[in-house]
Amino acid sequence: MARILIVYESKYGQTEKISRFIADKMKARGHSVDLLEAHAKSTDLSHYRTIVVGGPVYANGYPRALSKWVRNHSGDLNIKPTAFFSVCLGVMQKDQTVQRSEARIVQGFFRKTNWLPKKWAIFAGALNYSRYGWFTKKNHAHHRETIWR
User: Fold this and answer.
1) For residue 40, which of 74, 15, 7 has the smallest C-alpha distance?
2) Rounded to an integer, what distance in angstroms lies between the CA atom of residue 89 and that of residue 56?
3) Strand 119-123 with 146-148, pairing
4) pLDDT grade, residue 20 (50/70/90)?
5) Are the beta carbons of 32 and 40 closer than 8 angstroms?
6) Section 45-52 average pLDDT
7) Percent of the chain beyond pLDDT 70?
8) Structure letter (DSSP) for residue 42
9) What Cα–Cα distance (Å) separates residue 134 from each residue in 10, 31, 80?
10) Are 54 and 7 spatial neighbours (Cβ–Cβ below 8 Å)?
11) Mean pLDDT across the stretch 2-24?
12) How far is it, in rounded angstroms, from Cα 34 to Cα 14?
């Protein structure tokens, strides 16, 4: 079976939960899976057959550490089977304008990082209001999400 790396950055824990869920599913299929936080020390990607990257959308973008990690490894990412998942609540809205906006954020991330994964998806996170400050609560009051491309 394949050796797989899942790289993620998580602000409130939802992206980490999704990363662990994906890792558990892959392990159940017999794959060897390692998890790496994007802000952690880099690793040698040559040992991995497949790489999955995930991150949350905040303020119409992804965490700086995730963007930097992807940019720094885009050469390796572009020659291996890769996938990307975005965690963003806006995808739950049925409004096509919001859906297109979420897709544009993902596409912008790919352009800025010089990476084009083989597959990508947008997943809904969770609104854990008790863990958020006032500003975050106010800005997320109208968002939700879910999609594979």
Assistant:
1) 7
2) 9
3) antiparallel
4) very high
5) no
6) 96
7) 81
8) P
9) 19, 41, 41
10) yes
11) 95
12) 18
Confidence of residue 149 (pLDDT cuts 50, 70, 90): very low
- Residue 94: pLDDT above 90? no
| SS3 at position 124 | coil
The pair of structure tokens assigned to 115 is 């990476």
User: For the residues 43-60, what does the mean pLDDT come to?
Assistant: 93
SS3 127: coil
Helices within the chain (DSSP H only)? 14-28, 64-77, 96-113, 134-139
Please tell me the total number of residues recorded for the chain in this structure. 149
Q: 115: helix, coil or strand? A: coil
What SS3 class is residue 37? strand
Cβ burial 29-48 (10 Å sphere, 16+ → b, else e):
eeeebebbbbeeeeeebeeb
